[in-house]
Design goal:
Blueprint (H helix, E strand, L loop, with lengths): L7 H12 L9 E9 L7 E5 L4 E2 L3 H13 L10 E5 L2 H10 L13 H12 L7 E6 L8 H12 L13 H4 L3 E4 L2 E4 H13 L8 E3 L15 E2 L16 E2 L5 E2 L4 E2 L4 E2 L2 E2 L4 E2 L4 E2 L4 E2 L12 E2 L4 E2 L4 E2 L8 E2 L4 E2 L4 E3 L2 H10 L10 E3 L9 E5 L6 E5 L12
């Protein structure tokens, strides 16, 4: 059993001792999760809910957790990129001893990891199979449902940057389940119990069937962030404060999102990132890495406007406009006048292109101040220097 630590100074010394020992390895992220198990297959984890995640922070708590696990005889392979353990009564008791100097202060915004241990003290004897402690040591492809969820939390809380964590293989790890509120339900269990559930009037209301839950099932957004339809934002998305997601054709996928106040009435596909002050018009679509961008993730700069029902498949710099209804793709050919070329060069001094009348979309990727338009008389696609300022209504964001 870990010793009862008397003072905060003693705690700091104890943590340093643990960090210098063989049992310690600094984690990239860690946390204690409440898990949902399969109704038919209890060994299958369907979801992991983290009240607190630690990402490149709180290494003192990590040291105590690792020491408490070691004291319980639960070591881990230091060559592994992640580790997942059941939370036990012995683990909780060890942590309570080590965190003794902070127990009375652990409330509100203070000592959140200690708050979790305090709550586990009252829960673990009755729900002994509901909690897991999870460590990610290296940002490799996740191996467990618990580590996938920890990474999705890191993205959605903004603790990890968009496109900043390895989620390769996540779809193969997560189960496709029926979501009824915050509860995931195995489809096989529903099929096997359909007659009984329906005859007794107990068949659940199914909100969706997906491998990912909705953003709002796990994340509390900033006060000035609005999501008018919870189905429009997938968990693992990242929404900066001031973002508004309207109903209708809007959608934000996982590992995609906004970097500031943005109006979203269109689709932000996986790995797409939108800069502050931009407006994604009704039905507008930013292509994802699997939808025609040659695997290149799309970034939209600040103060851009993507017109209604437009399609953008190249990165855009700041202050760009894509007119309604047109597609700006890597292979789309755009006419550019010599005058527009000089104005665009002036706005983008690092652009080393030589003048020609026709540019493909990929040659214009990432440039600032572009306006893409289709000539309504000839049908010709054109690009020129934008002379309009895109500005969101501050009262709405």
């Amino acid at each position: 059993m870990l010793p009862i630590i008397a003072t905060k100074d003693d705690f700091s010394k104890y943590v340093e001792e643990i960090k210098s020992s063989e049992i310690y390895k600094e984690p990239l992220g860690f946390g204690i999760a409440r898990v949902d198990r399969g109704q038919k297959n209890p060994d299958k984890i369907l979801q992991a809910v983290y009240p607190v995640i630690n990402w490149k922070e709180n290494y003192g708590s990590a040291a105590i957790f690792l020491k408490a696990l070691d004291e319980c005889g639960l070591g881990f392979d230091k060559n592994s990129s992640e580790a997942v353990f059941d939370v036990t009564r012995d683990f909780v008791d060890n942590c309570l001893n080590a965190f003794a100097p902070f127990l009375s202060e652990a409330k509100g915004d203070s000592h959140k990891n200690v708050q979790i241990i305090k709550m586990l003290d009252s829960l673990i004897d009755y729900e002994c199979d509901k909690f897991k402690i999870v460590f990610i040591f290296e940002d490799e492809a996740p191996k467990t449902v618990e580590s996938v969820y920890l990474k999705l939390y890191a993205l959605s809380t903004g603790k990890a940057p968009l496109r900043g964590v390895n989620l390769n293989g996540a779809f193969g790890i997560l189960s496709n389940v029926a979501w009824s509120g915050n509860t995931p339900i195995e489809l096989d269990w529903l099929r096997e119990n359909e007659i009984e559930l329906k005859m007794n009037g107990e068949y659940p209301v199914i909100d969706s069937v997906d491998k990912f839950p909705r953003f709002l099932q796990h994340i509390i957004p900033a006060d000035n962030t609005r999501i008018l339809d919870s189905s429009k934002v997938r968990f693992g998305a990242q929404l900066a404060a001031g973002t508004t997601v309207m109903p209708g054709a809007s959608y934000i996928n996982f590992n995609a999102g906004t970097l500031g106040p943005v109006m979203v009435e269109g689709r932000i596909s996986s790995s797409a990132v939108v800069g502050k002050g931009s407006d994604i018009g009704g039905g507008a679509s930013i292509l994802g890495v699997l939808s025609g961008t040659s695997g290149n993730p799309i970034s939209i700069g600040e103060n851009c406007l993507l017109g209604a029902n437009s399609v953008t498949g190249i990165p855009l710099g700041d202050g760009c406009i894509v007119d309604a209804g047109i597609a700006v793709l890597e292979g789309t050919k755009f006419f550019m006048s010599e005058k527009s070329f000089e104005e665009i060069k002036e706005a983008n001094p690092e652009w080393k292109a030589e003048y020609k009348e026709i540019f493909k979309g990929r040659e214009l990727a990432g440039l600032n101040g572009l306006h893409f338009r289709q000539d309504s008389t000839t049908g010709q696609m054109k690009v020129f220097r934008s002379n309009k300022e895109v500005k969101l209504n501050e009262e709405l964001h």
